[in-house]
Amino acid sequence: MTEIIDGNEVAQGIRDGLVAGIDDLTAAGTTPCLATVLMNNDPASQTYVSMKHKDCEEVGIATRDIELDPEAPAAELFDTVDELNADPEVHGILVQMPLPDHVDEREVLRRIDPAKDVDGFHPENVGRLVAGNARFKPCTPHGVQKLLAAADVETEGADAVVVGRSNIVGKPMANLLIQKADGGNATTTVCHSRTDDLEAKLRAADIVIAAAGVPEMITGDMLSADTVVIDVGINRVETDEGSELVGDVDFESAKPKAKAITPVPGGVGPMTRAMLLWNTVKAASAESGVDVRLP
């Protein structure tokens, strides 16, 4: 019988496990704090930021909510990041994407103090991840690792296929899977829009991680029996009844073939948010010198 991996349940376990560490930090005089910076009028971005603040409140992480005019010069955003870098009460900085066209996203990422880069996208943190000495694992790939562990999926020696090569998910996910660490030691193939015979690669996989951003591109007939399927995609599509969220995997056709599979929504998404909290607590622990146990 196919196991449906419940991301909401696993994420709640992560949040519950963080509370003791947050209490220890607060008792020692350090309240973990996440600062979010929003510089767009996108309703989805506004919702994401609001959800992140709600998550922080639930576990006892303080927040700073900074909103900038999307028409403001890039220097205003850079100055804001500099101020947050210098603020000892702020431990994590998240600049919500997308940014206005006149702001260089790469320059913003470079501007954030690597020790406060809880997204894990600063070039220094990317380099540390690739070298196998990560300060912060990017939230979505780290969340995928936690989901695999929760489902007792053995990655060591497994053939894993990552579909998608983004800097946010695909590339760091592949790096984590091949590393000599818990949740690693897999033989990993990265597929993308130029991959020849994607179906053959998928059928050879023990683990498929779909992160291409193409609605339901992977169907059940492309998979072998007993494959573990982790669907990172979140795509809004129009239907006769309105609109709905679907993943990069056609859930209904893949489910009978899969040993375990994540739904959309309710799979990877909650884990991304939970691991942002995880990274913020880790940052506060490192800055304060108070060692706390992370779940």
Description:
With 295 residues, the chain is α/β, with parallel strands linked by helices. It has two domains: 28-113 and 271-288, Rossmann fold (3-Layer(aba) Sandwich); 139-264, Rossmann fold (3-Layer(aba) Sandwich), CATH 3.40.50. It is 40% helix and 17% strand. The protein contains ten helices and eleven strands. A six-stranded parallel beta sheet has the order 1-11-8-7-5-6. Strands 3-2-4 form a three-stranded parallel beta sheet, with helices on both faces. Strands 9-10 form a two-stranded antiparallel ribbon. Helix 7 links the parallel strand 5 (159-163) and strand 6 (187-191). Helix 1 (7-27) runs parallel beside helix 10 and helix 6 (139-150) packs across helix 10 (268-288). The protein is globular, with a radius of gyration of 19 Å. Pathway: One-carbon metabolism; tetrahydrofolate interconversion. This is Bifunctional protein FolD. Keywords: Amino-acid biosynthesis, Histidine biosynthesis, Hydrolase, Methionine biosynthesis, Multifunctional enzyme, NADP, One-carbon metabolism, Oxidoreductase, Purine biosynthesis. NADP(+) binds at residues 164-166, 234.
